[in-house]
Give the backbone structure.
Amino acid sequence: MSKEIKYTEAFDELQQIVVDIEDGEITVDELSIKVKRASELIKICKKKLSATEEDVNLILQELED
Amino acid sequence: MSDSPQIFTLKQVLSSIKKTIEDRYTSTYWVKAEMHKLNLSKKGHCYPELLEKQDGRIVAEIRAIIWQTNFDRINKRFIQIVREPLKDDVTLLLLVKITYSETFGLSLNILDIDPNYSLGELQKERQETLKKLQQEGLINANQQLNFPTLPKRIAVISADSSKGLSDFMNVIEGNSWGYTFFTMLFPAQLQGDNASSSIRQQLDRINRVKEHFDIVVIVRGGGAEVGLSCYNDYQLCKSIASFSLPILTGIGHSTNLTVAEMVSFRNAITPTELGDFLIQAFHNFAVPVKDAVKRLRISAITISSGAKVILNNESKLFRSVSKQMLSENKQNVNSNIKELENNFKFFLLNHKVLIRRIEQATYQKAKLLLANEQNGIEILKSQLPNFSKAKILSENNKLDSFLQSIRLTNPINVLKRGYSITTFNGKTIGKNNKVKKGDIINIKTATFNVESEVNKVEDKSE
């Protein structure tokens, strides 16, 4: 679940950046930093949509214990 | 009679019982009883055991029989209405004829089973489950969990062979957006008597590895719609309601909503619909992300081009302002230079005049000084002869007075005035040259030398 929270946070942060930029809350100085951060977050979000991280063997082993 | 009691054959006795019972119980009766075991034989006859319990204790028990012809009809109608097969350990309303057979003994011939009664019983169980969960505050417990932003990792409770499972997997794995789910099957019986415990067992297993999962789904479908009353089972519904992950159901049936579906986080009519729901959850995440990319691009371009325009304007403004300032300053400097020049000239002129004035003053003063000095010298020069005459005169005077003084001190001059000098042995008389009577002393006056003898001496010093 901890990973999930991370992605939710990434998503929320991304939304916040978009809103901030649209509202003009961001100076030109910050713009490139924010856009860079946003693209990282987008990458994380997109990766989450298409990646599988769970290790079946690990789960099976935990079920045995 | 006392010595030779009448002896009956067993057949006689049992036939008598049979006759008595058949005479006594002529009609059929509706009886409420729990069917402990159906005991379906190969020939299709059933030999159920009926009993009644009070506080868990058996208080009545009897064998029963359902002939194959009756059973087929009863079972068909029962399933049609109740959507459950006849099974063990349920209370049924039975139409029975009390029969007695010499070989099999007393039994109840079951002619019919009231499906509506059973349906009512099931409804009652459903109601009771609901009521209990309500009382325990569990009815909305699962629905109050936070649904994960991305329901990626799915624990699937289903059966390998279930059509519902393959429908579900087709939807989530065959999606055209590249969404990837992680699923793990926890196989369970999905209908019938054992389903409740089987599903609960899998929920326990999932609970042990719940960190690896976001949601649990229970999918079923494709089989006969019978034996689904397990989804009203209190124990199962409680497990679902109180589970710590959201449980989504796609049980796929056309009958009334079961309690399990009601208390689950979300119920979909079919496994396919459940799969679509999960895809939609991914869309809900993906679309805003895509939208964010678009908005980010537009906003960033807007901001930077806006900033560029502002910068251009500012630099234009800056250029014109600085040009203007430069020319203004140039003028200032020029006028300052002129002023400085004028000032300097004036200053120079002033100083020249001043210097000339000082020069003249100095010259005049020097002249005056020189004249003064010359005057003094002239005066001194003119006075010089007078000075020397006076000096000579005073020196003469001084010399004269000296001469006078010297004249006055001459003893001769003193003697002339009547004084005399007395000597003894050539020296004046005094302490060191005392005289006595008879000594001859010399007295000298201005005009005479006298030699005289001493008559008397009076020493005035003593």
